[in-house]
Design goal:
The complex is a heterodimer of chains A (509) and B (389). Chain A is of the alpha/beta class. Chain A is 37% helix and 17% strand. The radius of gyration of chain A is 28 Å and the shape is elongated. Classes of the chains: A alpha/beta (509), B alpha/beta (389). Chains A and B meet through helix 6, strand 18 and helix 19 of A and strand 10, helix 17, helix 18 and strand 11 of B. Bound molecules: zinc ion.
Chain lengths: 509, 389
């Protein structure tokens, strides 16, 4: 006999509907899943059989064939266990087909028959076409977000069979755990002094410019970076759904009262592998930190300590705004629309980095600097040298502007870009810059001087122009770029790793 | 122009060169290339056999006991390794390579050997040179300091180098990065008294490579000296050895900027051993690059606050020279305020903003304008004031 139960499988952050068809017929006892390799097939069989036996049902000693439809969908994962178990029960006539009418199932089975949660419930449940979707207890709340009222959850397979075949009621949904979705970023008002770095954060948020802090330990680099996320615009509905899906697919806990509504902040450790940073890896291709930080901030502290190949793998996604992961069994695309903030010591001794303050050997220094490749450094429109605050600054009782005040200006600049019909300034193409960022004669002269002194490359020129646009927008100067705007952009883009040589040729006297 | 020459000027069949026609410099080069042939051992050989060709033959064919006796101590492995070296190497071939690079050599027993080095307690046995070794005459001042100098140290080293050269004083230094290079750059730019450099590696290659042009300029206008023969890389032990020659060659050593420890403090010790007066340039008390120099001043070193201080210490008449006329456009208004806020210590844009309390745009405009006008330079995000040239 044939039975079908609706389920879904995950590829990247995308759920795909899967119909689990089970056919039980006479013949040599066997179990196969069409199109799946033997190992995953055996694992599924072992889990489902043990679960059935442990709740007093039988494992048919017949020929069992499982087909996952439609074919060609990247299927797999333990989340199909429950659907297979239910379909086997019906196909072997242990429970009636009526019991599973319009029931979808999404859970892994333990050997003792317990339902286990799976990652990615949000995108998975979203694509299951059924009137009732059964998930593990701890997946209930998250699943309910996308299929409100349709989700049911139980602890064990035995409990589920009793409900489906008898007149036992579904257990009440679990209490929502308290996972706050309050914006948990620290406030800008806590920053004493550091007006330059504050301004850099404001420019980064307003224009979407990647930002690199260079300075000795104790300069407050990470303290500053954590405050950037509060300056970003809140997520719109579409972004919110996307970000929530990605977090669900990665098995991260979602906030209790719904989707993620605030820009995420991710700070992976420098020991993180390339896979955990970029994504991919397992069969279901988990999203990496780069995608988890999408529409928010990715903070890479101790940038120089990350593996060179890991940093190299960042470049393409940063450029395109998406991660493409290809594996033997398929490929996936994740969003990677992050604002990147890097922080690093100026040199291995970290001592000061100021002229005359460093005690590293020339060789050790250049080895350290080589870790940050030119093309990666190029991605940072803003490069800020952070020194330890001067005592007067630390003792200052003057509170800085609060996050909310700064964010108002950021939102205004973003709105200006939207009015122009262009992306945030950090993503303007050279062509768009021509029309959006015209230069006064004075501004042009400053740029020409910088080019002539080899302080800027052609690419650098575009980047400086984009930052100048953001600076001007922040100051409320919406017309042509003035010399002052370009000069400010240049000062926001010093080369912190220039190898101890002044960026300009010696002035000729 | 030195290192490359050997690439396209290969040795013209050394077998045809008559060994008797080789100059003493050829034999000195060969002897100094022997493993473990340090200055003291070489000096003993040269005192025993004033003609270096004879020393070479004595090692090759003579009685080893004689060599042991000359070294003052039985050292069979060393003498064996010398014999192997001497048997395996062709003096003419080595000399061809070395002389193709323009390297000359003079031994401590030669009348041409600089007298102040001949009388030194720890003299070099052989001195290799590029350029004209006869310039080692007249007053000489060593200028030394840290490789990682601030803009302040760089500017002072350069000014001192220039003004000493203009006053007829040869500048002695090590051609290292930082203070050394700045001092010699000043001396070369002056086109006056010849610069004298003492380096730690063989003269066939430039180290550090960043000083390639300066190295060539010094060799052309003056002389580059080394104790290391052709082909020797700058091994660690050669730097302190080089410092003693700088001290020995100098009438006065001026330390421009130095960390608490470092090569220039070692040169100071070597100078003290030779009763060569040491002067130090005072630095800001907050600057770690001036910890060594300020410590020297506290210990009683004479301060070198101007070139005239150095000239007077040398017993020369102060130059009375005004520093060159200011050609930079006078900063006014806000730019003047930025320059005042900056002072003479490096500062970040953040620190300047904290002192001035302006908007970032106001500061940014001033910084770039001052940079363009040559009043300040920016290195790795730090701004430093540039002294009048
Ligand atoms: Zn260092």
């Amino acid at each position: 006999m044939l039975a079908t139960v609706a389920s879904a499988s995950l590829s990247g952050a995308q759920g795909w509907p899967v119909g689990v068809e089970v056919h039980v017929s006479g013949g040599m006892p066997s179990f196969s899943i069409v199109g799946l390799p033997d190992t995953s097939c055996r694992e599924a069989r072992d889990r489902v059989r043990a679960a059935l036996l442990s709740c007093g049902m039988e494992w048919p000693m017949q020929r069992i064939t499982v087909n996952l439809s439609p074919t060609g969908v990247p299927a797999g994962g333990a989340g199909l266990d429950l659907a297979i178990a239910l379909a086997v029960l019906v196909a072997s006539e242990q429970i009636t087909p009526l019991a599973i009418t319009s029931v979808g199932a999404l859970a892994e089975l333990g050997l003792d028959g317990t339902l286990r949660p799976v990652p990615g419930v949000l995108p998975l449940v979203d694509v299951i076409a059924a009137d009732t979707v059964v998930v593990a207890r701890s997946n209930h709340i998250e699943a309910d977000l996308v299929a409100p009222g349709l989700v049911r959850s139980v602890h064990t397979l035995g409990e589920l069979i009793d409900i489906l075949t008898g007149d036992v009621a579904w257990p009440a949904p679990p209490e929502a755990p308290e996972v706050a979705d309050e914006p948990n970023h620290p406030d800008m008002a806590d920053v004493r002094g550091q007006f330059f770095a504050r301004f850099a954060l404001e420019v980064a948020a307003a224009g979407g410019h990647h930002l690199l802090f260079v300075g000795p330990p104790g300069g407050g680099k990470s303290m500053l970076a954590r405050r950037l996320v509060g300056l970003l615009p809140p997520l719109d509905r579409e972004q919110s759904l996307l970000v929530s899906r990605i977090h669900s697919a990665a098995g991260e806990l979602l906030p209790s009262r719904g989707f993620i509504r605030h820009p995420p902040f991710r700070a992976p450790h420098h020991g993180a592998s390339s896979v955990s940073l970029i994504g991919g890896g397992t069969a279901s291709m988990r999203p990496g930190e780069l995608s988890l930080a999408s529409d928010g901030v990715l903070f890479l502290d101790e940038l120089g300590e990350f593996g060179p190949s890991t940093l190299d793998a960042l470049r393409q996604p940063l450029e395109e705004g998406v991660v493409r992961v290809a594996r033997a069994h398929g490929s996936a695309t994740f969003p990677a629309n992050v604002l990147l903030v890097g922080a690093m010591n100026p040199c291995p001794c970290g001592g000061a980095g100021s002229p005359g303050g460093c005690r590293c050997s020339e060789a050790a220094r250049s080895r350290y600097h080589r870790r940050i490749s030119g093309p990666l450094l190029d991605r940072f429109d803003l490069r800020i040298t952070v020194a330890r605050p001067e005592p007067a600054e630390l003792l200052s009782t003057e509170a800085g502007e609060a996050t909310s005040e700064v964010r108002d200006r950021v939102l205004r600049v973003r709105a200006i870009a939207a009015e122009r019909g262009t992306p945030p300034n950090g993503q303007l193409s050279p062509l768009e810059l021509e029309s959006v960022a015209p230069l006064t004669a004075g501004a042009r002269a400053v740029l020409e001087q910088a080019l002539a002194e080899q302080q800027l490359s052609a690419r650098g020129l575009h980047r400086v122009r984009a930052v100048s646009r953001t600076v001007a927008d922040l100051l409320g100067d919406e017309g042509e770029l003035e010399a002052e705007h370009v000069q400010t952009a240049l000062v926001l883009r010093t080369d912190p790793l220039a190898g101890g040589r002044p960026r300009r040729r010696q002035h000729v006297r | 122009m030195f290192a490359e020459s050997q690439l396209w000027a290969p040795n013209p069949s050394p077998a045809l060169v008559d060994p008797l026609a080789l100059p003493p410099a050829a034999w000195l080069t060969a002897l100094a290339s022997m493993p473990g042939a340090g200055p003291r051992r070489l000096a003993r050989l040269l005192r025993r056999w004033p003609d270096p060709a004879e020393a070479w033959r004595a090692i090759l064919e003579g009685d080893p006991t004689d060599i042991h006796h000359t070294l003052g101590k039985r050292n069979t492995p060393l003498v064996d390794s010398w014999r192997r070296f001497v048997a395996a190497n062709d003096v003419a071939e080595l000399w061809q390579l070395s002389s193709d690079c323009g390297i000359g050599a003079v031994g401590c027993t030669s009348p041409a050997f600089p007298s102040m080095l001949a009388d030194d307690p720890d003299p070099p046995a052989v001195l290799f040179h590029l350029g004209n070794p006869d310039v080692i005459a007249g007053p000489r001042v060593g200028i030394v300091g840290t490789r990682k100098c601030t803009r302040y140290g760089h500017d002072i080293a350069k000014t001192f180098g220039r003004d000493l050269a203009l006053a007829g004083v040869a500048v002695v230094s090590g051609l290292a990065l930082g203070v050394d290079a700045a001092a010699h750059q000043g001396a070369v730019d002056a086109h006056a008294a010849p610069p004298i450099a003492v380096v730690a590696n063989g003269l066939d290659s430039v180290y550090p490579r960043r000083n390639r042009q300066l190295w060539t300029d010094v060799a052309e206008a003056g002389v580059v000296l080394s104790e290391a023969p052709y082909g020797q890389s700058p091994e660690r032990w050669r730097f302190p050895a080089r410092n003693r020659i700088i001290a020995a060659l100098s009438d006065i050593v001026v330390v421009v900027e130095s960390h608490e420890r470092g090569g220039s403090m070692h040169t100071v010790t070597e100078a003290a051993l030779r009763d060569v007066p040491v002067m130090a340039v005072p630095g800001p008390i907050h600057s770690s690059a001036a910890e060594g120099t300020n410590e020297l001043l506290r210990d009683g070193c004479a301060p070198a606050c101007s070139v005239d201080d150095v000239l007077i210490e040398l017993g020369m008449v102060a130059s009375g020279r005004e520093s060159s006329a200011e050609t930079r456009p006078d900063p006014t208004g806000q730019q003047r305020q930025v320059l005042d806020a900056l002072g003479w210590l490096p500062a970040t844009a953040e620190q300047l903003l904290g002192r001035l309390r302006w908007s970032v745009a106001e500061l940014g405009a001033c910084l770039v304008a001052l940079e363009t006008a040559g009043w300040i330079v920016e290195t790795n995000g730090w701004f430093e004031r540039v002294a009048r040239g």
